[in-house]
Design goal:
Layout lengths: L9 H11 L5 H13 L17 E2 L5 E5 L7 H4 L7 H12 L20 E5 L12 H16 L6 E5 H14 L15 E2 L5 E5 L4 H4 L6 H16 L6
Parallel strand pairs: 2-3, 2-4, 4-6
Antiparallel strand pairs: 1-3, 5-6
Helix pairs in contact: 4-8
Amino acid sequence: MKPVSSVLLPNLVAVQHEIVACERCSRLRSYCQSVAQTKKRPYINDAYWARPVPGFGDPDARVLLVALAPAAHGANRTGRVFTGDGSGDFLMRAMHAAGFANITTSQRADDGLTLQDAYIVAAVRCAPPDNKPTPEEIVACHPHLLAEVAALPRVRVIVALGKIGFDATWRMLADRGIVIRPRPQFGHGVVIPTSGPTVVGSFHPSRQNTNTGKLTPPMLESVFRTAARLAVLGGQAP
């Protein structure tokens, strides 16, 4: 792994500020603010973030994770993607095992977690009701994904977490002139080379998947070990 960088590039800072200030989707903005007002009993004394959530990680990352959206009482509360809920801890254990995270948990924005050679974004930046954004909301948020990825100059591998993350990845690549026909099918562990980054599919580390055993720790660790190997190879499958 390469040395970790802790300095955000100026373009990335500007993109993140635009994401946080976004008011495009009234349904999502209303929902996030409502959740912040009613809260959840374990977090009754917390001040919720309740704004769109920008990406997080190493600005020099060669591995990009594309996920679904912030969790209502996770990133919508803490202000950092995959932070403050079980999904974040599940993800960080796997990333730590593959050398991408310095600790195995993701509890608070100030918990000392850093990512090395990895950066996490979401297809939708506001928590959606029932974790289900509408197609229109996904489209409205897509420019944020394009802008943030464009500000990450070294991405060679994309780990798409879940079907929505997978579909958002291919839309983003198509906007960059990278098209594969027919579009590849989503599946856990699939590795799809392109003329740009290699795409690796993975089940999303949601509680629905992890509590039922659809996604296990070894399964997710394997995805990130594959991503690490591909990053060293410049994103090209051997």
